[in-house]
Automatic annotation (TrEMBL):
Full protein name: S-adenosylmethionine mitochondrial carrier protein-like
Localization in the cell: Membrane
Pfam families for the chain: Mito_carr (PF00153)
Protein's membrane topology: Multi-pass membrane protein
GO cellular component: membrane
UniProt KW keywords: Membrane, Repeat, Transmembrane, Transmembrane helix, Transport
Protein family membership: Belongs to the mitochondrial carrier (TC 2.A.29) family.
TM regions (residue ranges): 14-36, 57-78, 236-259
PANTHER family: S-ADENOSYLMETHIONINE MITOCHONDRIAL CARRIER PROTEIN
First and last residues of every Solcar repeat: 13-86, 95-168, 177-265
Gene behind this protein: LOC105367744
Coiled-coil region: none
């Protein structure tokens, strides 16, 4: 009985800590790096960088991000850490990377329910497309599939790498990683994930910025990738690569740093 109560308390602590830590990391990271994200969106826009706003109004579209950032990040980490906490005790350590991949996939599936409509509104405002008042529900979720096709591989690479780097660091120094060490591990894993998924991000951005009257068949990710490649070649598929990788790497450092620091604070001060 006592064992069950302890287990339930541990579960509550994990979920609460993940909820708060994810929200804090998401809000701070998006607030700091929003201008870089705007530049990346405009570089990837089919209308061109200058017509999409150039270096003007870099915080255009910031409001929906602030509304959606905390719940999306919280949902991801509550799901990710919850699945980890549930399954890891039953499997040998060599299989933990599989758990991390599965947990990351489930986290992305749920977080994208909030992230996609927020990104549609945000990116249309970033590209100075002022039709967000007339967007239909179907249009708000346009790009859900392409976002998953980008974010699932991203998460599948990022989270197991982050956990692996932290484990290597822990084995090297014979203690748990500090928040700053966890942040460094996060930055490296994010850099790798970002570089790999850039073409998918380009296609996703084009889909979200496409006209609301465009037929659904024309905004499939495979069609968009072919269109970009035919028009701009490999360079087009990696449009916005530098600001995206730089921004995401710095963002990964801040995101995982805030996440680890908040997690450490919650573990020390809140016990259920």
């Amino acid at each position: 009985m006592l064992h069950m109560e302890t287990k339930n308390k541990d579960k509550k602590n994990v979920l609460f800590t993940s909820l708060i830590s994810g929200a804090a990391a998401g809000v701070v990271c998006d607030m700091v790096f929003f201008p870089l994200d705007t530049l990346k969106t405009r570089l990837q826009s089919q209308h061109g960088f200058i017509k999409s706003g150039g270096f003007k109004k870099l915080y255009h579209g910031f409001a929906p991000v602030m509304i959606g950032s905390a719940p999306a990040a919280s949902l991801f980490f509550v799901t990710y850490d919850g699945i980890k906490h549930l399954l890891q005790p039953y499997l040998p350590i060599q299989y933990h990377s599989i758990i991390h991949m599965g947990a990351a996939s489930c986290g992305e599936l749920i977080a994208c329910l909030i992230r996609v409509p927020v990104e549609v509104i945000k990116q249309r405002k970033q590209a100075l497309i002022n039709d967000t008042e007339t967007l239909k529900l179907r249009t708000l979720f346009r790009g859900y599939g392409s976002t998953l096709l980008r974010d699932l591989p991203f998460g599948l690479v990022q989270m197991p790498l982050w956990e692996y780097f932290k484990l290597c660091w822990k084995n090297r120094v014979f203690r748990e990683c500090t928040p700053i060490e966890g942040a460094i591990c996060g930055a490296i894993s994010v850099a790798v994930s970002t570089a790999i998924t850039t073409p998918l991000d380009v296609a996703k951005t084009r889909i979200m910025l496409s006209s609301t009257s465009v037929d659904a068949k024309e905004v499939r990710i495979s069609v968009m990738l072919k269109q970009v490649y035919r028009k701009n070649g490999i360079r087009g598929l990696f449009a916005g690569f530098t600001p995206r990788v730089c921004g995401f790497t710095l963002g990964g450092f801040v995101f995982f740093g805030i996440y680890e620091q908040t997690r450490e604070f919650c573990d020390a001060n809140f016990v259920f």
